[in-house]
Specification:
By secondary structure, this protein is α+β, with helices and mostly antiparallel strands. The chain has 15 helices and 18 strands. Strand 5 and strand 6 form a beta hairpin.
Length: 448
């Protein structure tokens, strides 16, 4: 391969092993690894790969949950953008920023905070995941209920197309309707259309005040009912996170934080001017008390951060319950969350498989974790069979199969459950226009 001559390409066995998997726990064996340090490096790499017919798999930090950065069966080059990690510009006058794809979300957040600014999308993996990966998957996070998700902040992109061509999309202005909106098309495309090298982002002034609190309820259904009740009261929190009993128990084993290990918990954040946050807090207390919830307010930033550390620890903490986790990130209308939780509980009882649920209840996004043991063939088979049943219930309640993780490898067998043949055909045609040779992240999203 001619790409072997590029100074940023490696075929060392150790590198191939380390970069052959992501957070989905799926594994593959890349042919080579590339670590471009600039857009020009990437252009050179992609042109050579295009000429040689080599498949390319974009990779951020490998925090994806659906195998989107895992090489498939055909020979592939993993292209890690971790070296392209510069914050190019923070424009405080126009409230925009330009970052390279490899910039870690949390690092960007901290750089903005120093200037009194704010970037709302905050995945649980924000201290590891990259902005480029967030763009590829359309990532969300707890603050999506009030502020929206990654696609709502991407104003423009710099792209390297599969033939090595370089182009840009979008505008720096608040308005712009010239031509098709290619920027929105690329957000959430999971690396199947082009490489994202730079991202133009909308940013906001930092809120004047943030108040963090928890409300403990006797069960998850009541906590879920409180979510809609809070919204009906006229309060729009910036986060409304739900943790069921299994999640609470696992976190307290993994990272003791003084959280209750029975019932269910809502983690709520309010932000805005002080004259708004104070009354909103009283409304939330009142609503939760009416449903039997006990409210505790975090009085210091350290106490609030401790709560968020516990929330972000749920995913790894669940392995204390069972050694294998099948994670899905379904979304249902907010008002249907109580019914969805009832259905999940029924599936758990019928199958004898533990199901732990937590997530962004404020926008209906629930992380459903089917806990099992891969080494127990019979049990694991029953657990895998639950995935389709969870999806059936999700769609029956007017939901969608993925809120922020994408499709990747793990969800592509279920794509036709949600999308009709005409929609899938249109998407495949779009893929063909961008990537006629089929070299960009092949085998992802669409069923074989």
């Amino acid at each position: 391969m001619r790409i072997d001559r590029l100074p940023f390409v490696s075929a060392e066995p150790e590198d191939l092993l380390v970069y052959g998997y992501d957070a989905s726990k799926l594994e593959g064996r890349p042919t080579a690894l590339a670590f471009p340090g600039s857009t020009q490096d990437l252009v050179e790499l992609v042109r050579l790969a295009y000429e040689e017919g080599l498949s390319l798999v974009p990779r951020g930090a490998g925090t994806g949950m659906v195998g989107g950065a895992v090489p498939g069966e055909q020979p592939s080059v993993i292209v890690s953008l971790e070296r392209m990690n510069r914050i190019m510009e923070i424009d405080t006058d126009n409230l925009v920023a330009v970052v390279e794809a490899g910039v870690v979300n949390g690092r960007f957040q901290r750089a903005l905070k120093d200037k009194g600014l704010f970037y709302p999308p905050d995945p649980a993996s924000l201290n590891f995941c990259t902005i480029g990966g967030n763009v590829a998957t359309g990532a969300g996070g707890p603050r999506a209920i009030k502020y929206g998700v990654t696609r709502d902040y991407v104003l423009g992109l710099e792209l390297v197309l599969p033939d090595g061509s370089l182009t840009t999309t979008g505008v720096r202005t608040a308005k712009g309707v010239v031509g098709y909106d290619l920027t929105r098309l690329l957000v959430g495309s999971e690396g199947t259309l082009a490489f994202v090298t730079r991202v133009l982002l909308k940013i906001l002034p930092e809120p004047e005040q943030v108040m963090t609190l928890t409300s403990h309820f006797p069960d998850a259904r009541t906590a879920a009912e409180a979510v809609s009740s809070v919204i009906h009261s006229g309060v729009l929190p910036r986060t409304l996170e739900l943790m069921d009993q299994h999640s609470l128990s696992a976190v307290e084993k993994f990272r003791p934080s003084g959280l209750p290990v029975t019932g269910a918990l809502l983690l709520v954040e309010l932000d805005g001017p002080g004259y708004v946050v104070g009354p909103d807090l009283e409304k939330v207390k009142e609503v939760c008390a009416e449903l039997g919830g006990t409210v505790t307010v975090a009085r210091t930033s350290a106490a609030a951060e401790k709560l968020w550390e516990a929330r972000r620890s749920i995913s790894p903490a669940l392995y204390s319950l069972r050694p294998t986790k099948i994670n899905e990130d379904i979304v249902v209308p907010r008002s249907r969350i109580p019914e969805m939780l009832d259905r999940l509980d029924a599936l758990s009882r019928e199958s004898g498989i533990l199901i732990a649920s937590f997530g962004h209840a404020g926008d209906g996004n629930i992380h459903v974790n089917i806990m099992t043991d891969r080494t127990n063939t019979e049990e694991y088979s029953r657990a895998r069979a639950l995935v389709e049943k969870v999806f059936v219930h999700t769609l029956d309640l007017g939901g969608t199969l993925s809120g922020e993780h994408g499709v990747g490898l793990t969800k592509k067998p279920y794509l036709s459950m949600e999308l009709d043949p005409v929609s899938i055909s249109l998407m495949k045609h779009i893929k063909k226009v961008f990537d006629p040779a089929g070299i960009m992240n092949p085998g992802k999203v669409f069923p074989d």
